[in-house]
Structure formats: structure tokens, C-alpha cells
Design goal:
Number of domains: 1
Radius of gyration: 18 Å
CATH architecture: Distorted Sandwich
Helix content: under 10%
CATH topology: Beta-galactosidase, Chain A, domain 5
Length: 293
């Protein structure tokens, strides 16, 4: 990473640093100089603070799905691996172009011609930083002359200590098979906190939650800091990844369930965009003090 690749925004007590050429990613997001996202810590896209999910979220089983009478085959795209299930779309592995930039706002763009993904599209990320926090928006427009399946989301990494808490109210939790794909859905009578107030590290998961109600919240008791995330209504699912022994975790607001393109009967499916149609999702991030006692 060089300083020329970075775009720095400021507003109130917030600072946002973008690295468009590395997957349209966020390099860091701070409040009062305290990281709200894990600052970029290495050369890989997985080392960034956050990257966009465009034009689908998470895995597609073996990269194969059908559209009408046509079968689409996607190649594995997991960097440095032959992992069989393509994941996270294409935007995260491409350089994005800076379109607009002020002291507190920026727009970056990624355009894809038909090829690995059979449909042409253009995606934009809009970042607006204010005294009340960050509004992060992704827009995806279908440039093809036929309908295109579409899904969007955000893949942030958060700092984690042994006391870090995450709360998100969801009705369902997908159980995964050994292949990392959803196998069965556990549902509560209503939307619940599946951690029941325990620290993030109390459960080791990499799965998707459905039926979100309200905002998501992360609390770092040791620093007296809380972060509230308000996803748009068309992001009803949340992917949560809490790897054992790591100093980070992921809470990803997304528009559809994993491998939804192959299982429309399950609900939480992808959106079909007509030619020229645009899909827009957003997430608002606001920090606040949290009692340390």
C-alpha cells in the first residue's frame, strides 16, 4: 500500500481511510482515533478493514447455477486457494476507480464486462462521513440486455478482545455442512440474540442469520466504546464469522442467504434486476460511549 492509493475523509470526531485500488476497501475507520474497524494489517484483501460484496454474497456451490435453460459456471476465486465455491462476487478482487472526492465524501466505481460473470454491470460505493457517523452505500446497475441476479453486502472486520460483545436480533441461524454450505435452518419463535449476551468468543461460527430485526451493535467494554450499525431494510441477513484464536471477527449485513441462487425455495433470495435497473443498499455506522463500570 502506498499513500497515493489512500483517500482520507474527516468529519467531526471520525476519520475514514479508503483504498479504492484494493477491492474498493476501507483501510481504517476511527472515532476519537480509536479503531471501529480493524485497520488494514497486511497485503491481502482479507487484511483490510472492510470490502464490498458485489454482485453476490458468500458462496455459490461449486460455482454452478441455472438461469432458464442456461447453466452458468463460475471459476473458483478464493485468493491463493482452489476452494471450489466462488464467493463474495467480483468487486472485492478488482481495483475501483475514484469518481468524486471531498473532505468528507467519496464515490468509487467498478465496472464489469460480460465474462466470468455473464452480465455486464456497474457498481458504485458512496461514502458520506458526518458528525453523526458514516453512511456507506452500494449501488449496482444491470448493464446487460436481460435480467441479472444480484446481491450486495458489506464485509467489515472488527477488533476483538475477550470481552467484546456483539448483539444482533435474528430469527434464524443456518447450520453448515462440512462443505461450508447451509444444510438446515434453526429458527426461534421470534428474533433473538443468539449469543445471549455472552462475548463474541463464546461461539465459533461462520454462518448466516435470517430475519433481522433492528440494528446491530458491537460493544468494547474495556474501552467504553459502542458501535451501532443500521443496515437498510433490503439487507435482512447477517453473516457472522467468529474464528477461534483471532483478534477480529466479522459481522456482514447482506441481501441474501448463502447459495440462494440455487435454492429460491428457502427464501432470502437474490434480486433480479431488469436491464438498466439499479439495486441500492446501505449501512449507517455510529459510535458512542459505553459505560465501563
Amino acid at each position: 500500500m502506498t499513500t497515493t492509493d489512500l483517500i482520507e475523509l474527516h468529519a467531526g470526531d471520525y476519520r475514514l481511510v479508503l483504498e479504492p485500488t484494493r477491492g474498493g476497501s476501507i483501510a481504517r475507520f476511527d472515532w476519537h482515533d480509536i479503531p471501529l474497524l480493524r485497520p488494514t494489517c497486511g497485503p491481502a484483501i482479507f487484511d483490510t478493514g472492510c470490502f464490498p460484496l458485489v454482485p453476490f454474497s458468500n458462496r455459490i456451490a461449486d460455482g454452478v447455477f441455472r438461469v432458464g435453460q442456461r447453466t452458468v459456471h463460475l471459476k473458483p476465486n478464493f485468493p491463493g486457494s482452489d476452494h471450489p465455491h466462488p464467493l463474495h462476487g467480483f468487486g472485492w478482487l478488482c481495483a475501483w476507480t475514484l469518481v468524486e472526492h471531498t473532505t468528507s465524501a467519496a464515490v468509487v466505481r467498478h465496472q464489469q464486462a460480460p465474462g466470468a460473470w455473464p452480465w455486464a454491470y456497474v457498481a458504485e460505493q458512496h461514502f458520506q462521513l458526518g458528525a453523526g457517523g458514516l453512511c456507506h452505500e452500494i449501488r449496482l446497475r444491470n448493464l446487460a440486455d436481460e435480467p441479472m441476479p444480484a446481491g450486495l453486502g458489506f464485509h467489515p472486520y472488527f477488533p476483538r478482545s475477550q470481552d467484546t460483545r456483539y448483539t444482533g436480533l435474528h430469527r434464524g441461524e443456518w447450520q453448515l455442512g462440512e462443505d461450508g454450505l447451509p444444510s438446515s435452518l434453526h429458527q426461534a419463535e421470534g428474533a433473538i440474540d443468539w449469543w445471549h449476551g455472552e462475548p463474541v468468543g463464546a461461539r465459533a461460527v461462520d454462518t448466516v442469520y435470517t430475519g433481522r430485526i433492528g440494528a446491530l451493535r458491537i460493544v468494547w467494554p474495556e474501552t467504553g466504546l459502542a458501535l451501532t450499525i443500521e443496515p437498510s431494510a433490503n439487507l435482512p441477513c447477517t453473516v457472522v464469522y467468529t474464528p477461534q484464536g483471532e483478534d477480529y471477527f466479522c459481522v456482514e449485513p447482506v441481501s441474501h442467504a448463502t447459495d440462494a441462487i440455487n435454492h429460491p425455495e428457502r427464501g432470502d433470495g437474490m434480486t433480479w434486476l431488469a436491464p438498466g435497473e439499479t439495486m441500492t443498499v446501505s449501512a449507517r455506522y455510529a459510535a458512542s460511549a459505553w459505560p465501563t463500570g
